Amino acid sequence: MLNKVFVSAIIAAAGQGKRMKSRINKQYLELDGKPILIHTLEVFDKIKYINEIILILKEDEIEFCREKILNRYEFRKKIILVSGGRERQESVYNGLKFVNKNAQIVVVHDGARPFVTADVIEKSICEALKNKAVGVGVPVKDTIKVVDENSYIIDTPDRSKLWGIQTPQVFNYDILIKAHEKAIEDNYLGTDDCVLVERLGHRVKMIEGNYDNIKITTPEDLILGEAILNRRKSKI
Length: 236
Ligand SMILES: Nc1ccn([C@@H]2O[C@H](COP(=O)(O)OP(=O)(O)OP(=O)(O)O)[C@@H](O)[C@H]2O)c(=O)n1
Ligand SMILES: C[C@](O)(CO)[C@H](O)COP(=O)(O)O
What we know:
The chain has 236 residues and is an alpha/beta fold. It is 32% helix and 24% strand. It has a single domain (2-235), classed as Spore Coat Polysaccharide Biosynthesis Protein SpsA, Chain A (Alpha-Beta Complex), CATH 3.90.550. Strand 8 and strand 9 (153-155) form a beta hairpin. It binds cytidine-5'-triphosphate (CTP) and the ligand C[C@](O)(CO)[C@H](O)COP(=O)(O)O. Residues 88, 110, 165-167, 191-192, 215 line the site of ligand LQXTBERG. It catalyses: 2-C-methyl-D-erythritol 4-phosphate + CTP + H(+) = 4-CDP-2-C-methyl-D-erythritol + diphosphate. This is 2-C-methyl-D-erythritol 4-phosphate cytidylyltransferase.
């Protein structure tokens, strides 16, 4: 079944990496001698069910990334470079405009999540064939508090119902484009793609991923990232 479906992957990597407080954008920082973005792309490049990769980059980084990062590595798949927007949502929408017209399924993934596994990606694609909208996440481990503007705790949601959603987030193309266009119409800005589809009233299925599918966001994540890679290498 999956062989008959055109699957596009949109890799969002057009952020500024402000929270990393690094001289170079975080997706180009190296873990185990390889740029974070390359780790991410290599996972998607090996998945035979993915027919195209659309990489969203900051406009002013496209040439640098093509010449100094991507050209140093071999990829089986063609990687289409698209310029991003001010917000992640706009970047993903820009990518949607370049998705192949035969695409049925779109996998949206953060370039800053290099530890995603092929197994989780394939599982999320299979689930999206059934449910049309899927998010990958993990149950939260901490108790979560809702805090007001004066830093007082105003609610403690039932932790058994709380998940930290990651990426990939995988959708039927028609649903995702409609969700983005409605968000633009409503001037709504979300922090992930699932929320845009939820706003359409479409049920989004959560599937369990891995706790080590972290998003490299702040300097501490680089230490975690090296440890994750070392542990994986020791298991080979
Ligand atoms: N306008 C944007 C903002 C973010 N992203 C991408 O979305 C992913 C998740 O975003 P985040 O971790 O917040 O990255 P940044 O926005 O770069 O980080 P910061 O908020 O610290 O600047 C990243 O791979 C990032 O490159 C994007 O494609 N376009
Ligand atoms: C999409 C996401 O990775 C899901 O956890 C997250 O919302 C991205 O947030 P960011 O602030 O753009 O990193």
